[in-house]
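dumping the sequnces here before i forget
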Amino acid sequence: MKISDMNWRQVEDYLQTDNRAILPLGSTEQHGGLSLSVDSILSEKIALDAAEPLGIPVFPVLSYGLTPYFLAFPGSVSLRVETYVRMMRDILDCLKRQGFRRILLVNGHGGNQPAASLAIEWMADNPDVAVKFHNWWNAPRTFARVQEIDPVASHASWMENFPWTRLPGVIQPAQQKPMVDAARLRVMGPEAVRAYLGDGNYGGYYERPDAEMLSIWSVAVEETRALIEGPWA
Amino acid sequence: MKISDMNWRQVEDYLQTDNRAILPLGSTEQHGGLSLSVDSILSEKIALDAAEPLGIPVFPVLSYGLTPYFLAFPGSVSLRVETYVRMMRDILDCLKRQGFRRILLVNGHGGNQPAASLAIEWMADNPDVAVKFHNWWNAPRTFARVQEIDPVASHASWMENFPWTRLPGVIQPAQQKPMVDAARLRVMGPEAVRAYLGDGNYGGYYERPDAEMLSIWSVAVEETRALIEGPWA
Amino acid sequence: MKISDMNWRQVEDYLQTDNRAILPLGSTEQHGGLSLSVDSILSEKIALDAAEPLGIPVFPVLSYGLTPYFLAFPGSVSLRVETYVRMMRDILDCLKRQGFRRILLVNGHGGNQPAASLAIEWMADNPDVAVKFHNWWNAPRTFARVQEIDPVASHASWMENFPWTRLPGVIQPAQQKPMVDAARLRVMGPEAVRAYLGDGNYGGYYERPDAEMLSIWSVAVEETRALIEGPWA
Amino acid sequence: MKISDMNWRQVEDYLQTDNRAILPLGSTEQHGGLSLSVDSILSEKIALDAAEPLGIPVFPVLSYGLTPYFLAFPGSVSLRVETYVRMMRDILDCLKRQGFRRILLVNGHGGNQPAASLAIEWMADNPDVAVKFHNWWNAPRTFARVQEIDPVASHASWMENFPWTRLPGVIQPAQQKPMVDAARLRVMGPEAVRAYLGDGNYGGYYERPDAEMLSIWSVAVEETRALIEGPWA
Amino acid sequence: MKISDMNWRQVEDYLQTDNRAILPLGSTEQHGGLSLSVDSILSEKIALDAAEPLGIPVFPVLSYGLTPYFLAFPGSVSLRVETYVRMMRDILDCLKRQGFRRILLVNGHGGNQPAASLAIEWMADNPDVAVKFHNWWNAPRTFARVQEIDPVASHASWMENFPWTRLPGVIQPAQQKPMVDAARLRVMGPEAVRAYLGDGNYGGYYERPDAEMLSIWSVAVEETRALIEGPWA
Amino acid sequence: MKISDMNWRQVEDYLQTDNRAILPLGSTEQHGGLSLSVDSILSEKIALDAAEPLGIPVFPVLSYGLTPYFLAFPGSVSLRVETYVRMMRDILDCLKRQGFRRILLVNGHGGNQPAASLAIEWMADNPDVAVKFHNWWNAPRTFARVQEIDPVASHASWMENFPWTRLPGVIQPAQQKPMVDAARLRVMGPEAVRAYLGDGNYGGYYERPDAEMLSIWSVAVEETRALIEGPWA
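..and the predicted 3d for all of it:
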């Protein structure tokens, strides 16, 4: 249930009987030939699909995250770590004020990890609220399914190429790109990252059959739903 | 053209011949019986409709803004002023780094005014980039059209009730609510605001014929488009 | 009653029977041929004149505000938005700690608007204190009086030329300057603003008869006094 | 020469031949029976008197400083250290932008010491500008003159009781208050400080003959003027 | 080579021929019966042992990190995320200013992960400096050695019990503690964490033979040294 | 008693009967031919020696402080004032949370003075905790002993040359360096400071007999111990 599809009375009614909420965390950043919003699209859709049968409200995705290494790829936007943790704190403070007590952060981008640190810091100030931080794509079951299909999988590869992240008219390369060296990447500035990455894919095929993609999705939705269901402490 | 419907190469190609970008500013806050995302929906859609024939990219809307007075209405989320201006600065810094030089902020929520202050501060640090801050709903021509139709118009009234902000199954009251006293409202804390506002509408009818609404929309799209076209200095 | 003309015991005595305070917000910035302190002088004097018969204490004016667009005019000083809202929060926190519960911010400079946003944010944290933000010069009655006298009135024009803001020995031009284009101004960096503005006046005559000025002052004092008197919620 | 008595062109003219500026740092805080603005009045007046024959501009005093220990004395206002150093940095940045290269901070309140730390930090970022931090009241010659007259001198005692800081109608006690124990004071919270201090004086007589006061003033003006004159490196 | 065992001239001489530096990141937090400084001791000693034959300087360990979940265990100290990233930025800025261009952060505490995010953000601002973030204890080869010895290993278990982290006179339990449920732990406030953890160990034996410990150490020193040696891009 | 030599249970036991703690504040900065860690080594050792017979725990020294003027001397690291006061606040918050109520900051570096300002600000927020700020080296009795031995004593001179701060193999000059002009130094940027200071010593001999040094140490330990013993209010 999207907060965007609710009015305040409906949220108030909901809070009479439940106190869970979901906040998806995305990013606006290069994903090779895929949408610049891959991480926002996926985290928000996983959250919505997982929450749907449970009737838990999903707040609007945070479309901007932490992605400084991609700043030489046009269209990528990165917040500062300090800005991001402040934003997280402000949002959690508001949700608590209104009665939410169990909050799931569905994260779609590895670079957003400081949100997890902030969540734990915030719980030390607000021990009556539980906040879970969930990297949907590398949670155990989902990641196992990805590995089962094809272990050469990475940022901007087939693994993020879903019917809802690909762009009409963009033809993906057919070959399997060799994995980049992640350790080297981590010590490069943005221009060097771009020169090294080329098209943006970190390694692996650019697309795989939809049946495989949907099977991953299905595992991820269930795995995320299980976290919503609990336990919460 | 949504950034979400582009990949980085398409943005790079665009930057060969143009340097404009649009960033919509929304809010997640009570709008009476309408969607909690009214301000996000409207600012993003105005931006997209205005930009469409010009081919200017529209970045994802900032879904969270400054709305502390509504914090007693469940589902409303407010960032701190400091957080908001930091977020704006970070985003503008990234856009500049990639070559954007003319940026239109299409704002959908009056409370976000400090973004305008930040934009001007930021231009003092970055005098080679022009940033326009545009309150789409009270720009001269759009506001004149609203007044022409019905001068009793306000937050969460008919004036924000478009086919894309109303919720299925929600019946709006038929009467015309008297205008609240805005001066009194401005010195109240959130709980007092809620007690005083009741359903959230600041005054006026709750809905009006779609033909009227679309005529407002059409003026607003044109007025916003004119700002994109320029002049820019 | 100036706080500068009181000692702490006198403030303590005052707080036995009242809980109002006034804080004027000024700016140090170019005002054409007028004093660089126009906004500080006017906001503090309006506050003092309005408060005088009521015996409400007026704290020292905040002499520095937000005015990045004027930074190419020597003598202009601008704080960052973040600094300014922090300063406002600190001061409000102290006033509350000592028992003030109704605080009027008498603002003399349009660029200081984020102080209004902070005041509302602060009331969400401190709902037991009412803070009014008052732009003395464009409040309804005062602005009507200005328009009545001469609708071509603006920053650094006759409208700010009072006996207490003009400088000895400075001769003002006699002609009526055409209004500058405010929309163009808002997308310029400081150097472009200066080149465009020339002497600093935004438009209108540079001076008008004192009788007219004093009639504006008189309306403004009364209008401000009415806000001090209330209602406060 | 007060900046408040100048317009921007006069400052620009000044900058053709000199690049010095003075910024007084005050505080709004209890001073026993004296004005709550003692530190602002004194630092601004010393600055003006010292600068006068040299024609160096004096910016408006920062009326609010760091004085958390006095928060239980009504009328005292304290900024946070972080706010204060940000404010100092913003102001120094502006002065540099306009061409000032030698800046004297005339400080009137011991609690403002972090401004000195900030000034040194800021010079590490801006090595082409010299910033002197001057505690006018305990500079060597001035302090020697105070000690010569009466070594029992302290905050809110006779030593701050000048014709321009005393309040009409307030009778000062005649006796010599014993010095408080400063070490004890420094580990007390505001309420304990107030209980311990009583009337606010730290020790010493409450007033002394004007001839003595003016002799101190005269030394302080000269000592401050010497710092303006240089050397500056 | 400890910076503490050098003077500035020796550092200057070093910088004539090399530009590498090492900064260990520790934490002051409960480690069961072991020293509260386990993470500081280990990260600093690994750094020193790895750097020794290479002659690379090791700066003093950052003794305080991010550990909010342990705040109910006396002696644990946690900085805020914002503080921590500011501290990291300040230090990196200084090292760059003096000529260091390749900096290894040897991290001893998982909670310090935002330092890695900051390092990448900082490299986007300073692309001429390479910063590696190294979790010494779960780097591939070291972690493999731990797993080989005993896969039940965790915070405050045998895996952190080295001759240099154990305390004289403290007897460790002999049994193997079952692993705690890390997922549950992550949504608990500090008091709940303490109640759940009991003695602080997350699972596993409390000590193992020194020969095993030294073999882990030896692998970790070599693995860390390899990172110092490079490649660095 | 070093916190590093304790585990959390030992701290908990301690807090049953006492609530004092000590935090040494150091700096990593040039000290002529002496260790770059002089201020950290001395503040931590004084704290430990003073606390030892009393059994009061000493937290790990803050190895990085405020020293922007020395940034042109390699190996010197300076935090920003804002970072430093945030760090202090975070640490004090944690100590309070765990039951400490009397905290002694043993400072080894004059530049760290804003920590004293923060301590007082923090006590205004936390009036139930007493925080003493102690500059061990210029406290009355210690400074008197230094002056008695040799009044020409300063930063990086003999006065900081203890058996535990000198470096093996470094030969100190034999002559007495004339005192530098501290007033000039304070308005210089880092490069000018370095050029002016030469070897880093501010004036005086580079070493004196150990018997003298140990007599200073002995006074300083006793003077510091007396502060731990109290009174505390």
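Chain D touches chain C through 54 residues (CB under 8 Å).
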